[in-house]
Specification:
Layout: H1 15-33, H2 35-38, H3 42-66, H4 79-92, H5 96-105, H6 108-115, H7 126-147, H8 157-179, H9 202-234
Helix pairs in contact: 1-7, 3-4, 3-7, 4-5, 4-7, 5-8, 6-7
Length: about 240
């Protein structure tokens, strides 16, 4: 389960992969559909998600160090780690503007990462379990803040969030050049077959990244826009 060399037989859309995706969708609907009943257990939900995020991030680095794999490229500077830290911060302290960024980078991107994961290990390897639990917990945290703590995002936050992501990406880009790393996947696409594999190379890759990010931001906002409009109508 914790081996570095064993169980490297992951297949895209295999039975374990599809099962995990279906479980994620089912639990997401459960969190939303039964929100009135679950409201009494809000504190339990909050600290469960908080614990999942912390354990996912910490256990990942413990496993890398224990198996002699940790290197500078494993610093927690990927988008999912940034989302994790923002969510952890929000669980401890309310901050509307911080949620704007989490909303756009912490909901649809983790879901897309689960659909086409950068993964070689098969269930029930630790890496498989950690990857899907971690990304699911990030997306569920966004749902929690919207459904249980009443966070809302204005339409103008699309551009605010887009600008914030680009401002984050700028120093990360130069850090990649300095350390020969691939944080935010700005140096090149993922090694395994994912959505980024179809973005091309060179300047075309960066143009496609910018376009894809903007599309993701607009698509992510659609249900929020519907929710905000509905609440305005109801007064």
């Amino acid at each position: 389960m914790f081996s570095v060399t064993e169980m490297q037989t992951f297949e895209l859309f295999s039975v374990p992969h599809i099962s995990v995706l279906l479980m994620f969708v089912a639990l997401s609907f459960w969190l939303v559909t039964f929100r009135h009943y679950l409201k009494r257990y809000q504190s339990v939900l909050k600290w469960t998600l908080f614990t999942m995020l912390v354990l996912s991030e910490v256990s990942w680095h413990i496993w890398l160090v224990a198996t002699g794999q940790w290197e500078v490229g494993d610093m927690p500077l990927q988008l999912c780690s940034v989302s994790t830290f923002i969510a952890i911060y929000l669980f401890m302290k309310q901050n509307q503007k911080a949620f704007y960024l989490l909303f756009f980078i912490g909901f649809l991107p983790p879901i897309l990462s689960m659909v086409t994961p950068e993964m070689t290990y098969q269930f029930p390897h630790y890496r498989f379990l950690k990857y899907f639990l971690h990304h699911a917990a990030i997306a569920w945290s966004v749902l929690y803040f919207i459904v249980y703590e009443g966070y809302r995002v204005p339409r103008k936050a699309i551009w605010t969030g887009y600008l914030m992501v680009n401002l984050l990406a700028l120093p990360i880009f130069f850090l990649n050049l300095l350390l020969d790393t691939n944080f935010f996947y700005l140096a090149n696409p993922t090694e395994s077959k994912t959505i980024l594999s179809f973005f091309g190379t060179g300047i075309i890759y960066y143009i496609n990244l910018e376009i894809a990010a903007l599309v993701v931001f607009f698509v992510t906002y659609i249900p929020m826009g519907v929710l905000v409009k509905r609440e305005r109508v109801k007064g």
